[in-house]
Design goal:
binds adenosine-5'-diphosphate; Rossmann fold; alpha/beta; nine-stranded mixed sheet; 16 helices; 17 strands; 471 residues; six-stranded parallel sheet
Protein backbone atom coordinates (compact mmCIF):
# COMPACT_ATOMS: atom_id res chain seq x y z
CA UNK A 1 0.00 0.00 0.00
CA UNK A 2 1.24 3.53 -0.71
CA UNK A 3 0.34 6.15 1.89
CA UNK A 4 0.92 9.88 1.43
CA UNK A 5 0.93 12.03 4.56
CA UNK A 6 0.40 15.74 4.01
CA UNK A 7 1.19 17.95 6.98
CA UNK A 8 2.36 21.40 8.08
CA UNK A 9 4.88 19.88 10.51
CA UNK A 10 7.21 16.88 10.67
CA UNK A 11 10.00 16.26 13.19
CA UNK A 12 12.92 16.91 12.74
CA UNK A 13 12.24 19.11 9.71
CA UNK A 14 9.94 21.62 11.40
CA UNK A 15 8.23 21.30 14.77
CA UNK A 16 5.85 23.48 16.76
CA UNK A 17 4.29 20.69 18.85
CA UNK A 18 3.02 17.13 18.94
CA UNK A 19 1.83 17.10 15.31
CA UNK A 20 5.47 17.12 14.20
CA UNK A 21 6.37 14.21 16.47
CA UNK A 22 3.52 12.12 15.07
CA UNK A 23 4.18 12.87 11.40
CA UNK A 24 7.90 12.27 11.94
CA UNK A 25 7.27 8.81 13.42
CA UNK A 26 4.07 7.21 12.11
CA UNK A 27 5.23 6.97 8.45
CA UNK A 28 8.40 5.20 9.55
CA UNK A 29 6.48 2.59 11.50
CA UNK A 30 4.08 2.13 8.58
CA UNK A 31 7.10 1.54 6.38
CA UNK A 32 8.41 -1.05 8.83
CA UNK A 33 5.10 -2.86 8.36
CA UNK A 34 5.89 -3.16 4.65
CA UNK A 35 4.23 -0.10 3.09
CA UNK A 36 5.50 2.78 0.98
CA UNK A 37 5.13 6.05 2.89
CA UNK A 38 5.71 9.59 1.74
CA UNK A 39 5.48 12.88 3.64
CA UNK A 40 4.79 16.13 1.81
CA UNK A 41 5.13 19.38 3.74
CA UNK A 42 5.88 23.06 3.13
CA UNK A 43 9.48 24.15 2.73
CA UNK A 44 10.27 26.52 5.60
CA UNK A 45 13.70 27.96 6.28
CA UNK A 46 14.80 25.47 8.92
CA UNK A 47 18.17 24.01 9.87
CA UNK A 48 17.10 20.68 8.45
CA UNK A 49 16.68 22.28 5.02
CA UNK A 50 20.16 23.78 5.03
CA UNK A 51 21.91 20.73 6.49
CA UNK A 52 20.64 18.15 4.00
CA UNK A 53 20.85 17.45 0.29
CA UNK A 54 17.88 17.92 -1.96
CA UNK A 55 16.91 17.08 -5.49
CA UNK A 56 14.30 18.97 -7.50
CA UNK A 57 11.54 16.56 -8.57
CA UNK A 58 8.85 18.89 -9.91
CA UNK A 59 8.36 22.49 -10.95
CA UNK A 60 5.05 23.99 -12.03
CA UNK A 61 2.58 26.84 -11.54
CA UNK A 62 -0.89 26.98 -10.05
CA UNK A 63 -3.30 29.69 -9.06
CA UNK A 64 -4.73 30.92 -5.79
CA UNK A 65 -7.79 33.00 -6.70
CA UNK A 66 -6.59 35.41 -9.34
CA UNK A 67 -2.89 35.11 -8.49
CA UNK A 68 -0.55 32.70 -10.20
CA UNK A 69 2.33 31.26 -8.25
CA UNK A 70 5.25 29.02 -9.15
CA UNK A 71 6.12 26.10 -6.94
CA UNK A 72 8.96 23.60 -6.68
CA UNK A 73 9.00 20.20 -5.01
CA UNK A 74 12.29 18.94 -3.62
CA UNK A 75 13.10 15.50 -2.25
CA UNK A 76 15.58 14.68 0.50
CA UNK A 77 18.23 12.62 -1.32
CA UNK A 78 19.45 10.13 1.30
CA UNK A 79 16.06 9.11 2.78
CA UNK A 80 17.44 10.15 6.14
CA UNK A 81 14.10 9.82 7.87
CA UNK A 82 13.53 6.32 6.43
CA UNK A 83 10.51 7.47 4.44
CA UNK A 84 10.35 9.66 1.32
CA UNK A 85 10.30 13.30 2.35
CA UNK A 86 9.19 16.03 -0.05
CA UNK A 87 9.20 19.75 0.65
CA UNK A 88 7.08 22.08 -1.40
CA UNK A 89 8.40 25.58 -1.92
CA UNK A 90 6.30 28.56 -2.90
CA UNK A 91 8.56 31.53 -3.11
CA UNK A 92 7.61 34.30 -0.70
CA UNK A 93 4.73 32.35 0.85
CA UNK A 94 6.12 29.24 2.52
CA UNK A 95 9.87 29.84 2.76
CA UNK A 96 9.81 31.62 6.12
CA UNK A 97 11.44 31.15 9.50
CA UNK A 98 8.30 30.18 11.40
CA UNK A 99 5.68 27.57 10.58
CA UNK A 100 2.62 29.59 11.59
CA UNK A 101 1.60 32.91 12.99
CA UNK A 102 1.56 35.08 9.86
CA UNK A 103 -1.38 37.25 8.72
CA UNK A 104 -1.48 35.39 5.43
CA UNK A 105 -1.54 31.84 6.88
CA UNK A 106 -4.85 31.23 5.05
CA UNK A 107 -3.23 32.08 1.72
CA UNK A 108 -0.08 30.09 2.57
CA UNK A 109 -1.85 26.85 3.45
CA UNK A 110 -4.50 27.13 0.70
CA UNK A 111 -1.74 27.59 -1.88
CA UNK A 112 0.21 24.68 -0.35
CA UNK A 113 -2.77 22.32 -0.61
CA UNK A 114 -3.52 23.38 -4.20
CA UNK A 115 0.11 22.89 -5.21
CA UNK A 116 0.30 19.44 -3.58
CA UNK A 117 -2.78 18.23 -5.46
CA UNK A 118 -1.62 19.82 -8.74
CA UNK A 119 1.60 17.85 -8.39
CA UNK A 120 -0.13 14.59 -7.44
CA UNK A 121 -2.37 15.04 -10.47
CA UNK A 122 0.74 14.46 -12.62
CA UNK A 123 1.78 11.17 -10.91
CA UNK A 124 1.55 8.04 -13.03
CA UNK A 125 0.80 5.85 -10.07
CA UNK A 126 -1.65 7.29 -7.58
CA UNK A 127 -1.37 6.44 -3.85
CA UNK A 128 -3.82 4.17 -2.04
CA UNK A 129 -4.47 6.66 0.74
CA UNK A 130 -4.08 10.40 1.26
CA UNK A 131 -3.69 11.05 4.98
CA UNK A 132 -4.00 14.71 6.02
CA UNK A 133 -3.36 16.23 9.45
CA UNK A 134 -5.18 19.14 11.16
CA UNK A 135 -6.80 22.15 9.53
CA UNK A 136 -3.76 23.27 7.49
CA UNK A 137 -4.33 20.34 5.13
CA UNK A 138 -8.01 19.61 5.83
CA UNK A 139 -9.36 21.20 2.64
CA UNK A 140 -7.73 18.42 0.65
CA UNK A 141 -10.59 15.90 1.11
CA UNK A 142 -13.00 18.52 -0.30
CA UNK A 143 -10.68 19.49 -3.15
CA UNK A 144 -10.09 15.88 -4.13
CA UNK A 145 -13.81 15.18 -4.17
CA UNK A 146 -15.32 18.35 -5.63
CA UNK A 147 -12.72 20.45 -7.50
CA UNK A 148 -13.06 19.75 -11.22
CA UNK A 149 -9.34 20.07 -11.87
CA UNK A 150 -8.51 17.24 -9.45
CA UNK A 151 -11.11 14.78 -10.78
CA UNK A 152 -8.38 12.21 -11.51
CA UNK A 153 -7.69 11.98 -7.76
CA UNK A 154 -11.31 11.74 -6.67
CA UNK A 155 -11.26 7.97 -6.13
CA UNK A 156 -8.38 8.07 -3.63
CA UNK A 157 -9.57 7.50 -0.05
CA UNK A 158 -8.78 10.38 2.29
CA UNK A 159 -8.18 10.18 6.05
CA UNK A 160 -8.08 13.22 8.31
CA UNK A 161 -6.38 13.02 11.69
CA UNK A 162 -7.29 15.75 14.15
CA UNK A 163 -4.46 16.51 16.52
CA UNK A 164 -6.26 19.53 17.97
CA UNK A 165 -9.80 20.67 17.16
CA UNK A 166 -9.39 24.06 18.88
CA UNK A 167 -7.70 25.38 15.73
CA UNK A 168 -9.92 25.21 12.66
CA UNK A 169 -8.45 27.69 10.17
CA UNK A 170 -11.79 29.44 9.39
CA UNK A 171 -11.88 32.20 6.77
CA UNK A 172 -14.59 34.28 5.10
CA UNK A 173 -16.59 33.54 1.97
CA UNK A 174 -14.91 36.55 0.34
CA UNK A 175 -11.98 34.16 -0.18
CA UNK A 176 -14.07 31.47 -1.80
CA UNK A 177 -12.07 31.73 -5.01
CA UNK A 178 -9.06 30.31 -3.11
CA UNK A 179 -10.63 26.90 -3.68
CA UNK A 180 -9.99 25.91 -7.31
CA UNK A 181 -13.16 25.71 -9.42
CA UNK A 182 -15.56 23.51 -7.50
CA UNK A 183 -19.04 22.14 -7.69
CA UNK A 184 -21.03 25.00 -6.15
CA UNK A 185 -23.81 22.64 -5.08
CA UNK A 186 -21.35 21.38 -2.47
CA UNK A 187 -21.11 24.71 -0.63
CA UNK A 188 -22.40 23.05 2.53
CA UNK A 189 -19.34 20.82 2.61
CA UNK A 190 -17.11 23.86 3.13
CA UNK A 191 -19.35 25.87 5.42
CA UNK A 192 -19.54 25.97 9.20
CA UNK A 193 -20.90 28.82 11.36
CA UNK A 194 -21.05 31.21 8.39
CA UNK A 195 -17.46 30.72 7.26
CA UNK A 196 -15.35 28.38 5.20
CA UNK A 197 -14.09 26.13 7.97
CA UNK A 198 -11.28 23.82 6.77
CA UNK A 199 -11.42 21.49 9.78
CA UNK A 200 -15.22 21.09 9.59
CA UNK A 201 -14.93 20.57 5.84
CA UNK A 202 -12.30 17.88 6.41
CA UNK A 203 -14.57 16.06 8.87
CA UNK A 204 -17.47 16.20 6.43
CA UNK A 205 -15.51 15.17 3.33
CA UNK A 206 -12.78 12.75 4.48
CA UNK A 207 -13.61 9.07 4.14
CA UNK A 208 -12.50 8.50 7.72
CA UNK A 209 -11.61 10.82 10.56
CA UNK A 210 -9.40 9.91 13.45
CA UNK A 211 -8.32 11.75 16.52
CA UNK A 212 -5.51 10.99 18.87
CA UNK A 213 -7.30 9.39 21.82
CA UNK A 214 -10.65 7.79 22.52
CA UNK A 215 -11.51 10.13 25.36
CA UNK A 216 -10.83 13.19 23.19
CA UNK A 217 -13.02 11.70 20.48
CA UNK A 218 -15.93 11.65 22.93
CA UNK A 219 -15.09 15.06 24.33
CA UNK A 220 -15.20 16.67 20.88
CA UNK A 221 -18.93 15.93 20.63
CA UNK A 222 -19.46 18.16 23.69
CA UNK A 223 -16.59 20.63 23.54
CA UNK A 224 -14.72 21.45 20.35
CA UNK A 225 -14.75 25.18 19.81
CA UNK A 226 -18.13 25.31 18.07
CA UNK A 227 -17.78 22.15 16.00
CA UNK A 228 -19.68 19.87 18.42
CA UNK A 229 -22.65 19.17 16.09
CA UNK A 230 -20.29 18.22 13.24
CA UNK A 231 -18.66 15.57 15.39
CA UNK A 232 -22.01 14.36 16.66
CA UNK A 233 -23.37 14.07 13.13
CA UNK A 234 -20.25 12.43 11.67
CA UNK A 235 -19.46 10.19 14.64
CA UNK A 236 -19.99 7.07 12.54
CA UNK A 237 -16.81 7.64 10.59
CA UNK A 238 -14.69 8.91 13.48
CA UNK A 239 -12.39 6.82 15.65
CA UNK A 240 -9.68 7.38 18.26
CA UNK A 241 -6.13 6.06 17.89
CA UNK A 242 -3.73 7.00 20.65
CA UNK A 243 -0.35 8.36 19.53
CA UNK A 244 2.73 6.32 20.16
CA UNK A 245 6.09 7.71 21.09
CA UNK A 246 9.21 7.19 19.04
CA UNK A 247 11.72 5.29 21.15
CA UNK A 248 14.35 6.01 18.49
CA UNK A 249 14.23 9.62 19.68
CA UNK A 250 12.76 9.37 23.17
CA UNK A 251 14.71 6.80 25.16
CA UNK A 252 17.02 7.70 28.06
CA UNK A 253 19.29 4.85 27.05
CA UNK A 254 20.15 6.32 23.62
CA UNK A 255 18.92 9.91 23.71
CA UNK A 256 21.30 11.93 21.53
CA UNK A 257 20.69 15.05 23.62
CA UNK A 258 21.81 13.45 26.91
CA UNK A 259 25.37 12.95 28.09
CA UNK A 260 24.35 10.55 30.83
CA UNK A 261 22.30 7.65 29.59
CA UNK A 262 20.33 5.35 31.87
CA UNK A 263 17.73 2.65 31.98
CA UNK A 264 15.34 1.16 34.49
CA UNK A 265 18.28 -0.36 36.44
CA UNK A 266 20.27 2.85 36.70
CA UNK A 267 17.58 5.47 37.30
CA UNK A 268 19.11 7.02 40.37
CA UNK A 269 22.52 7.61 38.85
CA UNK A 270 21.23 8.55 35.38
CA UNK A 271 18.50 10.91 36.41
CA UNK A 272 20.67 12.33 39.15
CA UNK A 273 23.32 13.48 36.67
CA UNK A 274 20.80 15.23 34.44
CA UNK A 275 19.16 16.84 37.47
CA UNK A 276 22.54 18.11 38.60
CA UNK A 277 23.14 19.79 35.24
CA UNK A 278 19.70 21.40 35.36
CA UNK A 279 20.16 22.59 38.93
CA UNK A 280 23.60 24.05 38.17
CA UNK A 281 22.39 25.71 34.98
CA UNK A 282 19.24 27.20 36.47
CA UNK A 283 20.41 27.85 40.04
CA UNK A 284 18.10 25.30 41.67
CA UNK A 285 18.52 23.11 44.76
CA UNK A 286 19.53 19.57 43.95
CA UNK A 287 18.14 18.12 47.19
CA UNK A 288 14.57 19.22 46.59
CA UNK A 289 12.17 17.47 44.21
CA UNK A 290 12.08 19.12 40.79
CA UNK A 291 8.73 19.85 39.14
CA UNK A 292 8.87 20.87 35.47
CA UNK A 293 6.41 22.15 32.89
CA UNK A 294 7.28 21.88 29.19
CA UNK A 295 4.95 23.23 26.56
CA UNK A 296 3.17 26.07 24.88
CA UNK A 297 2.37 28.86 27.35
CA UNK A 298 -1.30 29.14 26.44
CA UNK A 299 -4.67 28.79 28.18
CA UNK A 300 -5.24 25.38 26.58
CA UNK A 301 -2.30 24.06 28.63
CA UNK A 302 -3.49 26.03 31.71
CA UNK A 303 -0.10 27.75 31.73
CA UNK A 304 -1.83 30.92 32.96
CA UNK A 305 -2.35 29.20 36.33
CA UNK A 306 1.33 28.39 36.86
CA UNK A 307 2.46 31.70 38.43
CA UNK A 308 -0.19 31.50 41.14
CA UNK A 309 0.33 27.77 41.69
CA UNK A 310 4.04 28.34 42.25
CA UNK A 311 3.43 31.31 44.52
CA UNK A 312 0.81 29.46 46.56
CA UNK A 313 2.92 26.33 46.91
CA UNK A 314 5.85 28.35 48.26
CA UNK A 315 3.56 30.26 50.65
CA UNK A 316 1.34 27.47 51.91
CA UNK A 317 3.36 24.27 51.52
CA UNK A 318 6.77 25.84 52.05
CA UNK A 319 9.98 25.98 50.03
CA UNK A 320 10.18 22.24 49.75
CA UNK A 321 10.41 21.95 45.96
CA UNK A 322 11.91 23.43 42.78
CA UNK A 323 9.99 24.52 39.70
CA UNK A 324 11.50 24.86 36.23
CA UNK A 325 9.39 25.98 33.26
CA UNK A 326 10.23 25.67 29.56
CA UNK A 327 7.88 27.21 27.05
CA UNK A 328 6.77 30.09 24.93
CA UNK A 329 3.46 31.50 23.77
CA UNK A 330 1.21 34.12 25.33
CA UNK A 331 3.35 37.19 26.12
CA UNK A 332 1.38 37.96 29.26
CA UNK A 333 2.06 34.52 30.71
CA UNK A 334 5.70 34.73 29.63
CA UNK A 335 6.07 38.08 31.41
CA UNK A 336 4.47 36.79 34.63
CA UNK A 337 6.70 33.73 34.69
CA UNK A 338 9.80 35.84 34.13
CA UNK A 339 8.68 38.26 36.84
CA UNK A 340 8.32 35.37 39.27
CA UNK A 341 12.08 34.85 39.19
CA UNK A 342 12.22 37.71 41.73
CA UNK A 343 10.83 35.45 44.45
CA UNK A 344 13.16 32.55 43.72
CA UNK A 345 15.33 31.36 46.59
CA UNK A 346 17.23 28.95 44.40
CA UNK A 347 14.00 27.06 43.73
CA UNK A 348 12.40 28.58 40.63
CA UNK A 349 13.45 29.40 37.09
CA UNK A 350 12.01 29.70 33.62
CA UNK A 351 13.40 29.42 30.09
CA UNK A 352 11.20 31.28 27.63
CA UNK A 353 11.65 29.93 24.12
CA UNK A 354 11.76 26.69 22.21
CA UNK A 355 14.66 24.39 23.06
CA UNK A 356 14.55 20.74 22.02
CA UNK A 357 17.78 19.76 23.81
CA UNK A 358 16.69 21.36 27.07
CA UNK A 359 13.33 19.60 26.88
CA UNK A 360 15.09 16.20 26.74
CA UNK A 361 17.32 17.14 29.67
CA UNK A 362 14.25 18.20 31.65
CA UNK A 363 12.34 14.96 30.98
CA UNK A 364 15.46 13.15 32.22
CA UNK A 365 16.41 15.33 35.18
CA UNK A 366 12.98 16.13 36.63
CA UNK A 367 11.20 14.19 39.34
CA UNK A 368 7.71 15.31 38.33
CA UNK A 369 6.08 16.74 35.18
CA UNK A 370 3.13 19.14 35.51
CA UNK A 371 0.40 18.90 32.88
CA UNK A 372 -2.72 20.71 34.08
CA UNK A 373 -4.12 21.08 30.52
CA UNK A 374 -7.64 22.34 29.95
CA UNK A 375 -7.61 20.54 26.58
CA UNK A 376 -5.26 17.67 25.73
CA UNK A 377 -6.20 15.61 22.66
CA UNK A 378 -3.48 13.02 23.33
CA UNK A 379 -0.52 14.67 24.99
CA UNK A 380 2.95 13.36 24.37
CA UNK A 381 4.81 15.02 27.22
CA UNK A 382 3.34 12.70 29.84
CA UNK A 383 4.42 9.66 27.83
CA UNK A 384 7.94 11.06 27.30
CA UNK A 385 8.14 11.87 31.01
CA UNK A 386 7.19 8.34 32.04
CA UNK A 387 9.74 6.86 29.66
CA UNK A 388 12.37 8.92 31.49
CA UNK A 389 11.13 7.87 34.95
CA UNK A 390 9.49 11.24 35.65
CA UNK A 391 6.12 10.96 37.37
CA UNK A 392 3.38 12.98 35.60
CA UNK A 393 0.81 15.14 37.41
CA UNK A 394 -2.03 15.45 34.93
CA UNK A 395 -5.53 16.83 34.76
CA UNK A 396 -8.15 14.22 33.89
CA UNK A 397 -8.90 15.20 30.31
CA UNK A 398 -8.52 13.79 26.78
CA UNK A 399 -5.54 11.54 26.18
CA UNK A 400 -4.26 12.15 29.71
CA UNK A 401 -7.13 10.02 30.98
CA UNK A 402 -6.21 7.27 28.54
CA UNK A 403 -2.52 7.17 29.43
CA UNK A 404 -2.10 8.00 33.14
CA UNK A 405 -3.48 5.92 36.02
CA UNK A 406 -3.52 7.53 39.45
CA UNK A 407 -1.36 6.03 42.21
CA UNK A 408 -4.54 5.64 44.27
CA UNK A 409 -5.24 2.58 42.10
CA UNK A 410 -3.38 -0.64 42.53
CA UNK A 411 -1.76 -0.44 39.11
CA UNK A 412 -1.28 3.35 39.12
CA UNK A 413 1.91 5.25 38.33
CA UNK A 414 0.90 8.93 38.07
CA UNK A 415 -1.03 11.64 39.90
CA UNK A 416 -4.30 12.84 38.41
CA UNK A 417 -6.74 15.62 39.34
CA UNK A 418 -10.09 16.84 38.08
CA UNK A 419 -9.95 20.58 37.57
CA UNK A 420 -7.55 22.96 35.87
CA UNK A 421 -7.57 25.13 39.00
CA UNK A 422 -4.90 26.45 41.33
CA UNK A 423 -6.40 24.40 44.19
CA UNK A 424 -6.39 21.08 42.34
CA UNK A 425 -2.90 21.54 40.91
CA UNK A 426 -1.48 22.56 44.30
CA UNK A 427 -3.15 19.58 45.92
CA UNK A 428 -1.57 17.28 43.31
CA UNK A 429 1.83 18.81 44.10
CA UNK A 430 1.19 18.16 47.78
CA UNK A 431 0.48 14.50 46.99
CA UNK A 432 3.65 14.35 44.87
CA UNK A 433 5.75 15.65 47.78
CA UNK A 434 4.31 12.96 50.01
CA UNK A 435 5.16 10.34 47.39
CA UNK A 436 8.68 11.73 46.99
CA UNK A 437 9.26 11.37 50.73
CA UNK A 438 8.58 7.62 50.45
CA UNK A 439 11.79 6.86 48.59
CA UNK A 440 11.20 3.15 48.00
CA UNK A 441 7.67 3.60 46.69
CA UNK A 442 8.78 6.51 44.52
CA UNK A 443 11.51 4.38 42.94
CA UNK A 444 9.08 1.51 42.32
CA UNK A 445 6.68 3.87 40.54
CA UNK A 446 9.48 5.38 38.46
CA UNK A 447 10.44 1.89 37.33
CA UNK A 448 6.84 1.05 36.56
CA UNK A 449 6.41 4.23 34.49
CA UNK A 450 9.62 3.54 32.57
CA UNK A 451 8.51 0.02 31.74
CA UNK A 452 5.16 0.97 30.18
CA UNK A 453 4.85 0.37 26.47
CA UNK A 454 3.76 3.47 24.54
CA UNK A 455 5.50 2.42 21.33
CA UNK A 456 4.09 3.17 17.88
CA UNK A 457 3.75 -0.49 16.87
CA UNK A 458 0.19 -0.87 18.07
CA UNK A 459 -1.06 2.48 16.83
CA UNK A 460 0.61 2.12 13.42
CA UNK A 461 -1.24 -1.19 12.99
CA UNK A 462 -4.54 0.42 13.91
CA UNK A 463 -4.06 3.05 11.19
CA UNK A 464 -3.35 0.30 8.67
CA UNK A 465 -6.49 -1.59 9.67
CA UNK A 466 -8.41 1.62 9.14
CA UNK A 467 -6.91 2.15 5.65
CA UNK A 468 -7.62 -1.45 4.73
CA UNK A 469 -11.32 -0.97 5.53
CA UNK A 470 -11.62 2.17 3.42
CA UNK A 471 -12.75 0.73 0.13
P1 LIG B 1 0.93 20.23 21.63
O1 LIG B 1 1.13 19.61 20.31
O2 LIG B 1 -0.51 20.55 21.96
O3 LIG B 1 1.81 21.43 21.86
P2 LIG B 1 1.88 17.73 22.74
O4 LIG B 1 1.98 17.23 24.16
O5 LIG B 1 1.11 16.88 21.78
O6 LIG B 1 1.34 19.21 22.78
O7 LIG B 1 3.38 17.87 22.16
C1 LIG B 1 4.26 18.78 22.66
C2 LIG B 1 5.64 18.52 22.07
O8 LIG B 1 6.31 19.76 21.92
C3 LIG B 1 6.52 17.68 22.96
O9 LIG B 1 7.48 17.01 22.15
C4 LIG B 1 7.22 18.75 23.82
O10 LIG B 1 8.41 18.28 24.40
C5 LIG B 1 7.47 19.81 22.77
N1 LIG B 1 7.59 21.19 23.25
C6 LIG B 1 6.58 22.05 23.55
N2 LIG B 1 7.09 23.26 23.90
C7 LIG B 1 8.43 23.15 23.84
C8 LIG B 1 9.52 24.05 24.07
N3 LIG B 1 9.31 25.31 24.47
N4 LIG B 1 10.78 23.61 23.87
C9 LIG B 1 11.00 22.33 23.47
N5 LIG B 1 10.02 21.43 23.22
C10 LIG B 1 8.76 21.83 23.41
Amino acid sequence: MEIVHISAECYPVAKAGGLADVVGALPRFQKELGHVTKVIMPMYRTDFLYKNEWQVVHKASASLGHSWFDFTVIKEVSNKLDFELYLLDINGLLDREKIYGYDDDTERFCAFQIAVLSWMNTWNLLPNVIHVHDHHTALIPFMVKYCYGFGRLSGIPTVLTIHNAEYQGSFGWNKTNYIPQWDSWKRGMLEWNGNINPLASGVKCAWKVTTVSNTYLNEMRFKSNGMEPVFEYEKGKCSGIINGIDYGVWDPENDKYLNDHYNVHSIERGKGKSKKILCETFGLSYDKPLFVFIGRLVGEKAADLLPQVINDCFRFIGRKMNFLILGSGNSNIEAKLIDLKKISQGDYNVYVGYNEKLSHLMYAGADFLLMPSRVEPCGLNQMYAMRYGTIPLVRRTGGLIDTVIDIGNQDGYGITFNEASVGDISNAIYRALDLYSQKDLFRILQKKAMSLDFSWHNSAKQYLDLYQNLQ
